[in-house]
Amino acid sequence: MTRSICWALFGLAAAPSCLIWHKLVLKWGYRQALTRNLLVQALGVILPACSASLLFCVLSALFGGLYLYGTVTIALPKAKSLSHQVSFNMIAAMTALYGVGQIAGPLIAGALYQIAASFNPALYAAALALLIAAGLVFTERQA
To answer: Which GO terms describe its cellular component (predicted)?
Structure first.
């Protein structure tokens, strides 16, 4: 029952996420919006490692849904705006790298689970990666 509730909340939060993040990009700009988006992701990812309670499950689902499409809403237009600075299709490269992550992520999470008999190390690693990404976006040099 708990998982069903959390997945339903995830979907409800995901539904308006593109519109919300688009408005936030207009308000804050690319860098602030993507930095905050990545921080929200990190928080949503780490919550289940902090507690298995229904509250943390619900909060993780809400945060997860809110960032789900937001990252793409922010990143793809930015990639398109930078495409004249590179000699390759940046959106294709981002899509390919996303696919690599979709394959590598579960493999790494599975390996960490085999070592620790818990998904917490994978959640910590994912949250750390998101925090590093947020730091890189926040400190990005202007072209």
So the answer is: plasma membrane
